[in-house]
Amino acid sequence: MRTVSAICAQLAVLLAITVAAQRGGPGAIDKHVVDPAAADRGKKTYAAECLSCHGSQARGTDKGPNLIRSVLVLHDRNGSDLGPFLKKGHRGTASAGFTQEEIHDLAHFVHQRVYETLRTSPTFDVQNVLSGDREAGLKYFTGDGKCATCHSATGDLAGIGSRYDAPTLQQRFVFPRGRGRGLPAVKPVTVTVTPPSGAAVSGVLVTMDDFTVALRDANGEYHAWKRAPGLSVIKHDPYAAHIELLDKMTDQNMHDVVAYLERLK
Q1: What phi, psi does 232 have (nearest 5°)?
Q2: The CATH number of domain 4-115, selected from 3.30.70.2570, 3.40.50.2000, 1.10.760.10, 3.40.640.10
Q3: Tens digits of per-residue pLDDT, 228-261?
């Protein structure tokens, strides 16, 4: 039997979905809508139990990870993921004894920190992103990051440090699909489809799922196929390497590379 608090939590999620849908804009349709009053209450819990490890801005310290980039936090909706995680007990804190209300308020506070890092936020404040080591950035660029596989400091990235400020460089490095004034056009995802009998067709991907795949060729003509045995589909995402880096690189790697790119003037 569900408790009253569980029912209230579910209603809060449904309300968040409704409000998000009405607001529109980027992001998941069920994105967490922050309640400022709840975030203020959650700030007290965060300061008492979380700040020493995760930092005043939830960006992490040597003792704890960055919550702004936490997959668990990004998937959370009103404590849906944070709650079960904290209830297990977390690093000697009192989290196992948190009430549902405390978890709910803490979720609002953490999501508020996440949203304040977005440039669309009215409270967005650019932090000093040039905190990395340039030489370490060069080493990662040409080594573990494998950035040099596609990019060159004397080729496509020549002078990039004079074209963009440091925050924009970081945004372009981590989320290259981002759009904005003065930024280069986003490269499309392309696909080559070869049916069991017939010639291969290539073009810009329109849609692809478990059942169908569709594209527009160089002449703008629309092609679609049912996904069936014998149909070969090769997808090329020009930003796939950047997406893979999100699960591999650390915050330090990111700041090191940005410091290196900023030097390319």
Answers
A1: -95, 130
A2: 1.10.760.10
A3: 999 999 999 999 899 888 888 988 999 999 999 9
